[in-house]
Amino acid sequence: MTDDSGPWLVAGLGNPGREYAGNRHNVGFLVVDLLVGRLGGRFGRHKRAVAEVAEGRLGLGGPKLVLVKPLTYMNLSGGPVVSLAQFYKVPPERVIAVHDELDVGYGQLRIKCGGGEGGHNGLRSLSKSLGTKDYVRVRFGIGRPPGRQDPADYVLSDFAQVERKELDFLVDRAADVVESVVARGVEPTQNLYHAS
Fold first, then answer.
1. What is the model's pTM?
2. Would you name the residues annotated as active-site residues?
């Protein structure tokens, strides 16, 4: 078990640039943007990594959170995250990656620690850079592409109009999940959210 006074690093995975902002692949950015607002913080460029970073505490005197948006492209996310984990002395088991997940239906949230990357380039980069797969993943379900659409095109397309109706609520729920992992741990959070 890790020291409860140490910080947590929450990495929202996505691609930088306005043209990617509404993409399914960028849902990790949406979640950390919401979290930064909840903490009353602001993102700023970090001197040690190609990333935007914000710091804050979960509740009065609660655990410190370091929120990160890598400004490299998705397949190079690991480098900035690891630089920041080293800078803030965050062990891999206190790193939370928030990312889109093709293998989970739209709107469902799944939490796990460790395991494979499922073809997700951001996770692959993160696992390689950290030298371990034993970090927490908050998997935001985007579902499989319709028909014969290439998954690569699907993740880089914007949410459909019908999906956007629920998106704010789901991003809010994903932010709740991140806070729950930090406050309660992975297993209690799974018990809370996997049934719904």
1. 0.95
2. 25
